Each structure stands twice: as structure tokens, then as C-alpha cells.
Amino acid sequence: MSRYIFALQSFFVCASISLAGNKPHLTVYTYKSFISEWGPGATLKKSFEAECGCELAWIPVADGAAMLARLKVEGKTSKADVVVGIDNSLIAAADKTGLFSEIKIKQTNMRLPENYEPSSKFLPFDMGYYGFMFNTLAKQKSGKPYPRPKSMDELLNSPELDRSIIVEDPRSSAPGLGLLLWFHARYGADAPAKLKLFRKKVLTVSRGWSEAYGLFTKGEAPIVFSYTTSEAYHRETEKTDKFKALIFDDGHYMTVETAAILNSSTQKDLANRFLEFLTRDSSQSAIASMNWMYPVTSVTKGIPASYAIVKKPGKSLQIPAHDIDLNKDKWTTEWSQIFSE
User: Fold this and answer.
1) pLDDT at 12 > cutoff 50
2) What is the three-class DSSP state of 114?
3) How far apart are CA 29 and CA 43, in angstroms?
4) Which sign does the torsion angle of CA 250, 2, 78, 67 carry?
5) Domains of the chain
6) Residue 339: which pLDDT band, with cuts at 50, 70 and 90?
7) Helix axes 209-217, 174-187, angle to 10 degrees
8) Who's near 257: CB < 8 A, 6+ residues apart?
9) For 249-268, what is the mean pLDDT?
10) What's the pTM?
């Protein structure tokens, strides 16, 4: 996602191509930061076109949630052949649309946590863990440093952290939905009560990740909801450990981003070839070093050194895709009621 520079600069470049000639043409929807100036989009496009003799067009959409909403409107008339960026929280809802086809490549080189549910229509291309990024230099009004909670319970029970966190809206943002799912995976039936406690900690609710992270890096709040690998980005590209991920003993919610092929595509062979390309070592290392998410294969070459420094969560939390689909509307309605109080 190259989410970090994208949030700071609010700039992206969409790779446009000419339709001249007889080359096959592949249209791919993805989220904006994936094809930003510093994202992996341009690198992947150049490499794939060099071997396929085709032309690849990236079409930017805000994020996975917005992508799925757009596809529902377009239906069978969509111009997309492939979508890159629908995560595991939306797979069941996406599958219900009937818009996606079976993938005709083997997924034998995947290295994903055991509690991830594989799908024959949605191919993982990166993964990560949601987490809270912490500004280690931020100070309370008293001049004292903010406490660094080691669990979600500690965070909820730290009065010093009231009105100190920027989060994303689960109705419009994939990370926002990830936060909501984290509470339900961690607390079950007690999630609404815990969210009421969490509401006291929230300073701002943004529409999306880029807005939230931009406010955080500008110093508007000491904590933002993001990904634990955000720390790797800052260490690697900015050479600073000012921003660190809070790693919780009681686990973090896992996100897996996927790529999928539309039933309406007239380039299914080329689309399958592109999905296979995304899992190659060269592509996985490009995604890890420019999208700042963990690879989904065992690749080690080309992975930024900062990944070895950032602590990986010891426990991954998940909710089955089917359960998310059944409860998502109810849970987002509850969230809206709690955060409008």
C-alpha cells in the first residue's frame, strides 16, 4: 500500500496505458496507495508487461470495501478483469455476489497462519496484523510520557489515554472494520460494552486510513490504528524509531489481502497468469518493501531488514468469513450507535 508516504503526501499516480496495437489488455482494480508513486504498482506493471507481451491498466479505488461496493453496482458490466485488495473480512460478502470465478492456479507455496480460511476464488498476496502505532515522543499535558499498554484491556483501562487515539470508520474503511472485528474476536458478546470503554479513548474517527495516518504523523494524537508493519516502514525509509507498534499479549487481528478474477473477464488465462505472478518471489519482495505488508510465501530475499526488528504478534485473532458476513451489518450498526453517543 505504500500507505505511509501516500498518507503524508496525499498523492498517487495511476498508471495509464495506450490501447493501441493488438496486445492483450488486462484491467485491474486496486486501492489508490498500491499504485501511488511509491507503491509497488509501477514495479509490478513493468515486470508483468515485460514477460506477458500485454498491457496492464491499474484503476484506482479507495480501498477494498469501496472496491466491492463499486463491483456490486457495475455487476456483469464491470470493465475489471482482476481486483487486487479485497481482504479476508470481505471475502464471504464478495463471494455472495457471484461475480468471481475459480482460480486456475495451484496455491501450494502459501505460508499463512493455520487459522486462515483458504478460498478457491480469492488468492492471498500479502498479509499483516492490525495494531496501534504509538508516537514515543508524545507527551501528556502534564509533560509525562503516555503509557504503553501491553494488552487491549490495559489500553481500555488507562485513563491517561482518554481522547488520544485516531481510528477509522468501519462503515467506510477496511482497517476500521478490522478494528471492529478485533473487538468481537477478542471479547465476543462483551464487545459492545468494551467498545463503549474504547469510545472514551478515541479523539477522531476518520473516513479512511490515509486521512487517519496523516493526522497521526502531523502530531494530532499520540496513537493511531494502523498495521504493526507501519513501524517497519518508518525504520526502513525514515531511519527513525519514533513511531512504534504496540504489541499486545492477548493477540492482534490478522488481515490477508487477496486478488480475484471477475466472471465477466474476457482475459481469464491472462488474469490467472497475473495472479500467479503476484506470488513469485520478486513480486512478494516488491510488495513487502513498497506495500509494507508481510509476504504470504516463504520468500526471504529482498525483504527489508526492518521486518526482522519489528516484533511480530504472537497470537493472531480471526473470525470466520461466514460469521463476518452474517453479523457485519449488526456490528457496524452497534458501532455507529456507540460512537454517536
Assistant:
1) no
2) coil
3) 16
4) positive
5) 3-128+256-303 (3.40.190.10), 129-253+312-339 (3.40.190.10)
6) very high
7) 90
8) 64, 84, 85, 86, 87, 124, 125, 126, 127, 293
9) 98
10) 0.90
